[in-house]
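Comment thread on ticket #2218

A.B. wrote:
> Attaching the input chain for the structure job we discussed in standup.
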Amino acid sequence: MTQPGDALRFEFATSADGTSLAFARLGAGPALVIVPPVPFSNVSGDWSVPLIREVYTRLAGDLELILYDGRGTGASHRTVTDLSLDVLTTDLEAVLDASGVEEASLLALYLAAGPAVDFAARRPERVGRMLLFGATPDGSKVIERPGTAALLSLIDEDWELFTRTAALDWMGWGVGEAGHLVAESFRSATTPEVARAAMMEFARTDLRPLLNDVQAETLVLHRREGRQVPLEVSAALASALPNGRLHVLEGSSATLFFDDPAGTADLISAFVRPGGRARQAARGAPPSSPLSEREREVLGLLAAGESNAEIAYRLGISIHTVERHVANVYRKIDARGRADATAWALRHGLG
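C.D. wrote:
> Ran it. Output below, let me know if you need it in another format.
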């Protein structure tokens, strides 16, 4: 098993149709599988991006992180013809089996939501908790958006331009070194043929009939100022899941870890592993809450993604009073921002 700071070491699983799937394990603790967003999964490419590598290493301080390349991508078997939701879900189970993990939590971004939700619905006994970001239950609605349709038209016209535009503009990485590394990760992840086939399958995917069968506690993450997925889509998804809830993150990036990477990683760890973490213990966190009852109320609403104005309205107090409570909360729990405070709230049963 790879340890934080090491070069990645791949193991291989074999899916039901004989497809070889490359996966890597990092850290120790409750298992968290990052479900690959085929056709853009490229574990080695992601590992080359310092910000992503730092986030994975931070998560691995509390969890066993399982990363794998979806079929047709990365170090997995590249020549594939079947990219249906059914086989992607089967691949996820094959990786769990090869890892020796009976139950895991799932983190799925964008296209990866399909196999994550499908697996959670089919095999509820194997899914602890689930986090979704950028998830859209009806794939056809995404493909029909004018900006997305224009971007996808580049797959056949200019593969390099397509992957660069997807990374720098659509996903918001910008033109710095990290953006160029992500663009290269996208470019080398797969072929235009696999990408086109995967997007066609995604356009046919409708997760709505599955949602009521998902029993895992699910956190639907949404960027407050994000452009790619409307807030109402994320809110409707959270409402449709029996144990789902929406959490609104600050910022506008389409990339989950771009805004406040450490805080977001801690939020994920706290959700997957509630009740305390080694890093928090190392900081000397007190066993009992240092917060007043009102501060706990404010923090609970903040952790639910409500703005200061919404908290003020709900509690019948002024925004200025809310701001004062939030400042006191941050000081007392040593929080660097909203994501850090939310992680603390989840660890202490307030989220």
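A.B. wrote:
> Thanks. Noting for the ticket: Confidence is low (pLDDT under 50) at residues 276-287.
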